Amino acid sequence: MPDFLIENEIKEKGFKMICGVDEAGRGPLAGPVCAAAVILNEEIEGLNDSKKLSEKKREQLFDVIKQKAESYCIAFATVEEIEEHNILNATFIAMNRAIEGLSVSADFAIIDGNRAPTGIKLPCETVIKGDAKSVSIAAASILAKVTRDRLMLEMDKEYPQYNFKKHKGYGTKEHTDAILQYGVSPVHRPSFLKKLLGEDG
After folding, report:
1. Is the residue at 133 inside a domain?
2. Is residue 199 in some structural domain?
3. What is d(CA 187, CA 102) in angstroms, rounded to the nearest whole number?
4. Are the C-beta atoms of residues 53 and 149 closer than 8 Å to each other?
5. Which contiguous run of DSSP H or E holds residue 170?
6. pTM for the complete prediction?
7. pLDDT by 10s per residue, the chain, length 201
8. How far is the C-alpha of 34 from the C-alpha of 149, rounded, in Å?
9. Number of folded domains that form the chain
10. Which stretches of the chain are assigned E, i.e. beta strand?
């Protein structure tokens, strides 16, 4: 289970406001990528990597995190930005937006993964599988995942033929079959569909 060990080690170096940063939606064929930054200074019972929690538990923790966080911000990079900059750089754009959108400025960021966002404006440290180690990153992973899932439910209402409510834009057989049957929607990522549709697709 994640704990405050990483945060406490960083605080011993003199930093006070440490934000955890994570993203959701790098892999799907449709929809934006979402990132969250969270400054958290108190324990939240049941907090864990969003992928290890049920949808119901994530929804419950979403509200608790927003209530208990010192500050949080959730941000997106659009499908257009993913296409223009590639998914890695679009993820960095979303992460930087989340960090810079905090109502209480962070003085250090701990980021899930092994690469820090290009252009980040504060000291940072990357943590592989950080959402299973750091409570701040775990909280960010839940905010990002729940927010993106809710957005995909809205997209499902607009484009019901793809059944986004079920797979949230990921490349399941049902989803790829729907793309082949109905074509590409405005919320799909063309660069992710080249193999499915042929390079000229």
Report:
1. yes
2. no
3. 27
4. no
5. none
6. 0.96
7. 999 999 999 999 999 999 999 999 999 999 999 999 999 999 999 999 888 999 999 999 999 999 999 999 999 999 999 999 999 999 999 999 999 999 999 999 999 999 999 999 999 999 999 999 999 999 999 999 999 999 999 999 999 999 999 999 999 999 999 999 999 999 999 999 998 988 654
8. 10
9. 1
10. 18-24, 33-39, 71-77, 108-112, 124-127
